[in-house]
Amino acid sequence: MKQPFDDRRQAGRLLGEQLQRLRVEHPVVVGLPRGGVPVAYEVARALGAPLDVIIVRKLGVPTQPELAMGAIGEDGVRVTNHDVVRMARVTEAEIAAVEARERIELERRVALYRPRHGRVALSGRTVVVVDDGIATGATARAALAVARAHGAARVVLAVPVAADQTLWSFEEAADEIVALVRPTDLVAVGRWYRDFDQTSDEEVAALLEAANAMVTSGAIADPGERPTIDTGEHVVTIPAGAARLPGLLTVPAGATGVVVFAHGSGSSRLSPRNRLVADTLQRHGLATLLFDLLTDREARDRANVFDIPLLAERLVAATAWLRTQPLLASLPVGFFGASTGAAAALWAASALPDDVAAVVSRGGRPDLAGERLAAVRAPTLLIVGSLDHEVLALNQQAARQLGCAHRLEVVAGATHLFEEPGTLEMASTLASDWFLDCLRPAVA
């Protein structure tokens, strides 16, 4: 078999190229000592990101030390592979003895690798966890748990090579997984490198010092600085309870309001129809936030796609997040919803009567908001295609239940998705006019 990687540094450079899209998230890169640190160093250089380590130790089965029954990490984290423990008939006392021995080595490495600078803060950041490869995944799983414990907003697991069957078990542990090679017959990580010599403690310490020197010189971002929202386009992460939802925030210069988009069933923040509407709003001086209402895992359950209260909670969380951003905190907020997203927008607006200044529904299902319609106070525009007969009737019924100022606009010749020439542009213009009229900053 031809090995795809010359050595760890070359593998890191290739991995860094694959992760370039993360630069706009201003991530922190953490490597797993020792072998993961040379890979992580090259990833950090490629992303212009600070580098640190998360120190973990494998817990080997007493009679087979190479077989991982779990792993430990800093701050008392322990991950156990219960299947291996059961198969090898390892007792809790034996696990505790192995953990005590490995904890001593873990603390030794903490003292060795961080002699001149403290831990890089992970709270609220995108954290890229890097190793040289994954076989059973015990140590990587422990590292992800440590990153979560330190408040990481989003965790990305990135490796040159990993066993395909192992990565499937990481869906809940990581928000995103990037592996350049995912063999079904991994056998051993070293098999995929031409040079897989052991990484020394001295090399790990030297790479950390080199990365720290780049921060000091200004070559990469100061890890103590958090990115702030300014004008322009930003890839963001919206915290919503335990979920972390990716989004795209665009802030034109002199923005006079911000519109939060709620996509329809089967769609996402990448919806081309919503992007076209967002572009129109941006040209008129309105900031826009398009974000996924569900995680990838949640979206696979079709019941969640129609869970209007859940989707509305996500819009409420996004609005709360906007209020934490100094540039946006005082701007009036509007909701734009399509399909089921329109019901979520109206439901959320009823829960935020003092925070939402306008709602627009395009091809929406406002009827799914049910009794919440009567509690909506934000001026609401319902846009429906004249050929979308069933949805048009539902919008007419819903309009009669609204307790706020509202208007129903019917776009001639349009079907449900507004795919006919000029119809989506007409809907965008109607939405823009409505928001510009309603989202007027308060005059002091």
Structural topology:
Layout: H1 8-18, E1 28-31, H2 36-47, E2 51-53, E3 56-61, E4 64-73, E5 78-80, H3 82-88, H4 92-113, E6 126-130, H5 138-149, E7 154-161, H6 164-167, E8 176-181, H7 201-217, E9 232-240, E10 243-251, E11 257-262, H8 272-283, E12 286-291, H9 296-299, H10 302-305, H11 308-322, E13 333-338, H12 340-351, E14 356-362, E15 380-385, H13 389-401, E16 406-411, H14 423-438
Parallel strand pairs: 1-2, 1-6, 6-7, 7-8, 11-12, 11-13, 13-14, 14-15, 15-16
Antiparallel strand pairs: 3-4, 4-5, 9-10, 10-12
Helix pairs in contact: 1-2, 2-7, 8-14, 11-12
Give a verbal description of the structure.
- With 444 residues, the protein is α/β, with parallel strands linked by helices.
- The chain has two domains: 8-217, Rossmann fold; 232-438, Rossmann fold (3-Layer(aba) Sandwich), CATH 3.40.50.1820.
- It has helices at 8-18, 36-47, 82-88, 92-113, 138-149, 164-167, 201-217, 272-283, 296-299, 302-305, 308-322, 340-351, 389-401, 423-438, and strands at 28-31, 51-53, 56-61, 64-73, 78-80, 126-130, 154-161, 176-181, 232-240, 243-251, 257-262, 286-291, 333-338, 356-362, 380-385, 406-411.
- Strands 9-10-12-11-13-14-15-16 form an eight-stranded mixed sheet, sandwiched between helices. Strands 2-1-6-7-8 form a five-stranded parallel sheet, with helices on both faces. Strands 3-4-5 form a three-stranded antiparallel sheet.
- Helix 1 (8-18) packs parallel to helix 2.
- The longest helix has 22 residues, at 92-113.
- The protein is elongated, with a radius of gyration of 26 Å.
- The mean pLDDT is 87.
